Amino acid sequence: MHASPLMLCLTTILCFAVFFVGPVTAAPIAASAKVCNAAKRAAKTASADSGADISVGVSVGIPEATSTASFSHGHHHSSTVTDLPTATGTTKSASATGTKSTKSSSVKSTGTASASVSAASSTSTGSSSSGSSPRFVVYTDQSVSSKNGLPDVDDIKGFNTLAISFLLASGPADQAQTWADLSDSDRKAAKKAYNDAGISVIVSAFGETESPTTDGTDPTSTANTMAEWVIKYDLDGIDVDYEDFDAFNKGAAAQTWLNTFTKALRKKLPAGQYTISHAPVAPWFSDSYENGGYLAIDKAVGDDIDWYNIQYYNQGTDMYTDCEGLLTKSGSSFPNTAVMQIADAGVDLNKIVIGKPGIASDASDGFLSTSTLASCVKQAQAKGWNAGVMSWEYPHADTKWATAVRSTVFPL
C-alpha cells in the first residue's frame, strides 16, 4: 500500500481522535490500537518507498476513573492488553503491548519474532527441556540486502535459531515470502549453510496484524496448513506469535484456540524432528488472569511446546528494565511475571527464553544495553536458568550483539 502525506496526516489525526473521544474501555482501546497500526503501516510503507524515516507514535494516558493504564506505540506495530483480569474477575489497571507484528504480504518491513533450537545441538522435545542447550534466537522480518535476501551466516553467528517472519493464515509475507520465493537449489544451499553453522531456521506465524480467534480462523485446519508449509519449505520448526489481544483478554476462547492449534501442529510436526515455540508477551503469564492466562496454556499443552520466546519489552518504562525486574520481582503493573516468578508458577525454567530488542528503537521501552543484559544472563544462570535469549530483530541484533550478551556465560 502506498501512502501520500495527506493520507498519513488524516490517518494520524483519526488515530488520536479515537483515543481522546468518549469514555475509554477495553473495546475502544483495542480498536484505537488497530487504527494507529494502520497509520503506522502506511507510514512505514511510505518510508520504504521514499527512503525517509517516517514513524507514527502515540502515547495515551487512560483517565483514572476508567483505568490508569497507558501504552505507547514505537517503531513497530503493537497490540494492547488492557484491564488485566484478576483471579476474582475484577480488573487491574494494566496495559501489555506486543512488539512482534506483520505487514501486508506485499511489503517487507518490521515484523514478528520467533525461535528454534540449534540444528546442531538440539535434543529437546516438547516433554522436557530441562537438559536442553540454550536457545539464542533472532528474528528477521526487514528486507535484507544480500545475495538471497536473507541474513548472511557470518552476520548472525552467536545465534542458533533464525526466525523468518511471517507466515499468515493467508500465506507467507515478508521474509517468509522471501524464503518461499527462493529456487529449490538456493533454498537448499541456504538451509545447509545455516545448519552447518549450528543455526536452525524456523518460521514465525501470525504476528500483530492477525487475530485468529476473533476472526474465526479454524485452529486445526490452519495448523495443518502451516505445518505442511514448514515441511514443504524445509524448515526446522515454527514459532506461534499469537497476538489476538482482544480474544486473550476475554479468556477461555483464546486458550482453547491455542491449545487446539498447538496440538494439531505437534501431530503434524513430531517432537525431536521439529520444534514448536510460542512467543507471548510477559504479562500473559500473570496469575491475575481469571482463566489462568498462559499458565493454563502451559499446563494444557506445555509438553508440546519446546520453549517460550517471552517478550520482555514494550510493557512500560517501569517494567523489566533492570535485572531484578526481569529476573526476580517484576514491577507492580504486571506482578509475578519475572523469569523466576513464572518458573515458580510451574513453567519449566529452561523454557523461559528472555526476549529483548536489539537496540532501543526496536521497542517502545524495555531495552537493556548488551552489558546489562549480559549481567542479567549471568545472574539468571547462577539461579539455575539455562534457557537462552531472543532478540527482536536483525540487523540490529547481529553477531556483535550475540557475542556481547553471551559474554563469559555462554562464550562463542
Blueprint of the fold:
Elements: H1 5-20, H2 26-50, E1 59-61, E2 70-72, E3 79-85, E4 91-98, E5 135-140, E6 161-168, E7 171-172, H3 174-181, H4 184-196, E8 200-206, H5 219-232, E9 237-241, H6 245-250, H7 252-268, E10 275-278, H8 293-301, E11 307-311, H9 323-327, H10 339-344, E12 352-357, H11 370-382, E13 388-392, H12 399-406
Parallel strand pairs: 5-6, 5-13, 6-8, 8-9, 9-10, 10-11, 11-12, 12-13
Antiparallel strand pairs: 1-2, 3-4, 6-7
Helix pairs in contact: 1-2, 5-7, 7-8, 11-12
Shape: globular
Q: What portion of residues is helical?
A: 25-40%
CATH architecture of the largest domain: Alpha-Beta Barrel
Total E-strand runs: 13
Main beta sheet: 8 strands, parallel, barrel
Q: Going by CATH, what is the homologous superfamily of the largest domain? A: Glycosidases
Strand proportion, as a percent range, falls in: 15-25%
The sequence of SSEs as H and E is: HHEEEEEEEHHEHEHHEHEHHEHEH
The CATH topology assignment of the largest domain is TIM Barrel
| Count of spatially separate domains | 2
Mean pLDDT: 78
Low-confidence stretches: 1-95, 101-131
The Rg value, from CA coordinates, equals 20 Å
Helical segment count: 12
Task: For the largest sheet, list the strands in their spatial order.
Answer: 5-6-8-9-10-11-12-13
Terminal-residue CA separation = 42 Å
Q: Structural class given helices, strands, pairing?
A: alpha/beta
CATH class of the largest domain: Alpha Beta
